[in-house]
Specification:
alpha+beta; Glutaredoxin; 34% helix; 85 residues
Length: 85
């Protein structure tokens, strides 16, 4: 299983939608074992500054940026599929 990180902001409406989609997708047995490290950018600023991204939400899989910005549920599913490969 690959390491997945999600950078987000608590007040961001796009992040809230992505978190909701993620919660729903993790109920699928294909993805149930995926562990997501959720990093709230405004709280963990030093950690967030170590990564190269511009927009939240932003997913990294094994330290490689995969998706960022406004994400669809299908985008989130793609990230999870990469994590289980």
């Amino acid at each position: 299983m690959k390491k997945v990180q999600l950078f987000y902001l608590q007040r961001c409406p796009y992040c809230r939608k992505t978190l909701s989609d993620l919660q729903e997708l993790l109920k699928d047995e294909r993805f149930s074992e995926v562990k997501i490290e959720k990093i709230e950018e405004s709280i963990e600023k030093e950690l967030a500054d170590q990564y190269d991204y511009y927009y939240v939400p932003c997913f990294f899989v094994d330290h490689q940026k995969i998706k960022e910005g406004v994400l669809s549920k299908e985008d989130v599913a793609e990230v999870l599929e990469l994590a289980v490969k």
